[in-house]
């Protein structure tokens, strides 16, 4: 079985170099598109303590979390990860990698033997170091080629998403047969 797990933050974001208010976070938009194409459920990592709405405040908090290696807590996910062989993992690129709430998820869940397909939203930094960081936190999982999407282009990313999924979907079908 396949599941999508993602962290996304709406509110004030930097889009194309300008601050804009988003009612839905960019990573959630991508996660929903993937969920629709694959016809699977998507599960959000929702922080127990909400991140600030102001862009600069969240940038400062994210930097602090990374510097002290903090592990923010998230609300319980309502699915059994053990039943899923494939996990699409989505996140924004914060300070060159995934947010520390994603590290919390990775450390609290056994992803050994699972296939992880990472996707991230960014405004110019691509996947950053997140693939290496994923391999470090999930050494017994198979980390596949990731999909970086500029946050300012998520609404127009359907073809890129479909191409990425088609490339990897044949591998998923082989693994689950």
UniProtKB/TrEMBL annotation:
InterPro entries: Flavodoxin/NO_synth (IPR008254), Flavoprotein-like_sf (IPR029039). Pfam families: Flavodoxin_4. SUPFAM superfamilies: Flavoproteins. GO terms for molecular function: FMN binding; oxidoreductase activity, acting on NAD(P)H. Residues 23-166 form the Flavodoxin-like domain. Signal peptide: none annotated. This is Flavodoxin. It comes from Enterococcus silesiacus.
